[in-house]
Amino acid sequence: MKLKMLLIAITLIGMANYSSAQIVYEKLLNDKLYHARVKLVDEFFNRFNLKEYHPSLDTTLESFKTDNIIVLFDYESFKQDNHLFPMAVEFAKKIVNSKININYSDTSWTAIAKCKGRLRNTSVDFTLFLKVEPRGKDMYKWIITRAEGEIFDLKPEFSDQRLMILPTAHETNFMQLSRITQEKDNVILNYKDKNVNTDPTSVFFSLVHYGLLDITGVIDLQFEFRQVPGYVFTIKNIDREHLNAGWLIYKLVKK
Amino acid sequence: MKTKLLLTVLLLIGIAHLGVAQSNFVNNEKLKLRAAQKVKEMTDNVARIADKNRSVSARQYLRTKTLVLFINKGEAFKEVYDGGFEIQREGVVMETTSLRCTTCDPKKTLMTKYLTNLINLNYSQVKIESTDVASMEVSNLQKINDNEYVCVVYFDQAFVGYRDGRPVYKDITRKSVEVHIVVEETIDGKEYIIRLGDVHASDTRAN
After folding, report:
1. What phi and psi values does residue A196 have, to the nearest 5 degrees?
2. Those residues with Cβ within 8 angstroms of residue A192's Cβ, 6 or more apart along the chain or in another chain
3. Counting beta carbons within 10 angstroms of the beta carbon of residue A24, is it exposed (0 to 12), middle (13 to 18) or buried (19 or more)?
């Protein structure tokens, strides 16, 4: 009897251990949230152009096309009780009524990439602006149109009237030019024509060209669109566990 | 009679053009599906490589098999241009993020190293789950050269690390992969050579 009880106990303990050793894998990904999210910029284009719809919308409703545009807005910035919401609704109605489309090949949308980089051994931040440019039949590429950042706004460390190329320098073959570029580089702007301005974008290209500046990553990316007459809107990737997530309009300006 | 003939000819020309347009459309959707399938192959292999239930040698074999999916098998290579100019290209990169540092920028690891790291993860068990192929979001194909295209495939990836049967780390990361497609004409018709490029990690959150 005792042996029987012992065997039963051992069996029960064994079963319990077996159960805990088995890791029960539940499904980890949420399909509903995944399908609602605007996952790619291309998907934003498709939803904006009414080629695809938010999966939660009732497509039998008369308002579903306008609703499809409205749900492309970041609800936190354009809440229904917010003063910006009526502007979003007006914008959505204009898109639908005027059948306005946005296209990848348009020249009126801009990528705004906030970059992190290394200038020699120093960590730096700056922004690059990019546009799409055609390069043959049905082929495109992104091009850098502008650079912005404190590191490109060249300013001399200090200015002083005595910092000059001497009026007699022409008689010594301008040998002073060697001095001004070797003795202290960052006051060079003291020697320029006051009517000549440095261009930040050229400074960016020069620094990269000479191996002085590297981009280590893009820390924020937004896209600004000017295709809708009277409006400028900006999208960015808003990640959250919500049916309103992904590439969404977070800024809308009426011109 | 003449009018009837003219209408018939116009109709036939229209049908011919419709056939061409439709075949281009079918090819694009077919290529996008092939791209997603290739990415799914990668994500399935990643899950298997991390699976501690498999032997190390089996997982190393899978690592080698997975690298074949990538440009130049994930290795660095020289790209040669007209005039004999060369650029040394580093190997394919996998970006990773972690809940242990949400303010950190995504870490870039060479794919060759990333897959090795997966084999050596310091957990007793690992579960990786990715979006199924039918749900992967594929961008439009962009032509970059004659017979060469590029697109991006987006998916979610959930990661759970276990110690002694208990989950000690869980996250979900949004990922997007560059996919390069070269279309070659062969005697048997079109052949698609698909290779994966860099993998971007856009966000990580708790599972």
Report:
1. -95, 125
2. none
3. exposed
Chain A from 223 to 242: CB within 8 A of any B CB: 237, 239, 241
Query: Which residue in this structure is represented by tokens 């699976």?
Result: B51
CB contacts < 8 A (A, B): 58
A34 → closest Cβ in B131, B145, B170:
B131
The per-residue pLDDT for range B46-80, each reduced to its tens digit, is 999 999 999 999 999 999 999 999 999 999 999 89
Q: Across chain A, what does the average pLDDT equal?
A: 91
Question: Is there a contact between A34 and B135 if contact means CB atoms under 8 Å apart?
Answer: yes
Instruction: Give the DSSP H or E segment for A99.
Output: none
Q: If we measure between CA atoms, which residue out of B202, B197, B101, B192 comes closest to residue A219? A: B202
Strands, DSSP E only, in A51-93?
none
Q: Residues B174, B154: contact at Cβ < 8 Å?
A: yes
How far is the alpha carbon of A86 from chain B, nearest alpha carbon, in Å? 31
Among candidates B129, B144, B152 on the partner chain, residue whose Cβ is nearest the Cβ of A40: B152
Residue B122: HSE in the Cβ half-sphere, 13 Å Cα cutoff: 0
- B158 interaction partners in chain A (CB closer than 8 Å): 28-29
> Do B187 and B181 form a contact (C-beta atoms < 8 A)?
no
Global ipTM: 0.83
